Amino acid sequence: MTQIVYLNGDFLPIESAKISVLDRGFLFGDGVYEVIPVYGGKPFRLAEHLQRLENSLEGIRMESPLATSDWEAIFARLVDGTEDQSIYLQVTRGAPPKRDHAFPKNTPPTVFAMCTPIAPIPASGVCAITVPDIRWQWCHIKAITLLANVLQRQQAVDAGCAEAILVRDGQAIEGAASNLFVVSGGTIVTPPKGNDILPGITRDLTVEIAHANGIPCEERPISLNELRAASEVWVTSSTREILPVVMLDQSPVGDGAPGPVWQRMNSLYQEHKLRLRQGL
């Protein structure tokens, strides 16, 4: 079955979707993106994802090309069935007539969106490594300029791991493609929002669920020493949900298996998803 995608007002087979070689996303990485999970045919926390998109666009001095109702109409056309899937959308500063670092004038943006299945999440946990954070200073913008993240994630893959946890000035910041949580002294801890981390939608929901269920949770810096001494380590993202890390830098986290706090949080997260599927 041919996959249909959205590109600049048209729905067309993915093989027919083309952009100009002068597109600033291609030449400069000048654009932003968003990933929205879909459960039971319903986009998950859509308002929060679209607000983050607006924030990212504002961060690179672009206006949103579409209204919320327009995004909803596009997603409704792209979502296929009720299986778990994710929407990827990308907005770039478009394709001006010549290459120039300065912002072009009167150039319409390039808007692209597609929907793909979500891979199964390994409930047995994954391994991760720690690496120096070599990224830029505006990590709160969900920009498509992801080369540093790509290199660090590949470093993890080369080591047989699923994620790289980034360390800067002795502090564990986040994963190359995820937010970071630890369980320390029975309390869930995640780094606070700021320019050095992406304000993850799944991260925020995890914090909300913990508070709503009386589970101790703090937003504060995590030192590398605290990360290595934690009884549990998790990474969160839209497509990986709450993923337990059971090995870190070739050493077991806790007893080397998903911990009891993760078990409870994952159960509560799945209940939240079920209510969405049921329209509650």
Essential attributes:
ten-stranded mixed β-sheet; D-amino Acid Aminotransferase, Chain A, domain 2; six-stranded antiparallel β-sheet; alpha+beta; 7 helices; 280 residues
Element string (H = helix, E = strand): EEHEEHHEEEHEEEEHEEHEEEH
What would the average pLDDT be, to the nearest integer?
96
Report the CATH C-level class of the largest domain.
Alpha Beta
Structural domains: how many = 2
Q: Span between N and C termini? A: 32 Å
> How many distinct beta strands?
16
**How would the global form be characterised?**
globular
Kindly state the percentage of residues in helix.
Answer: 25-40%
Number of helical segments with 4 or more residues: 7
The CATH superfamily title of the largest domain: D-amino Acid Aminotransferase, subunit A, domain 2
Per CATH, the architecture of the largest domain is: Alpha-Beta Barrel
**Major sheet:** 10 strands, mixed
Low-pLDDT runs: none
> Structural class of the secondary structure composition?
alpha+beta
Task: Examine the coordinates and then state which fold CATH places here, giving the name of the CATH topology of the largest domain.
Answer: D-amino Acid Aminotransferase, Chain A, domain 2
Sheet-strand content, in percent, reads 25-35%
Please tell me how large the radius of gyration is: 19 Å
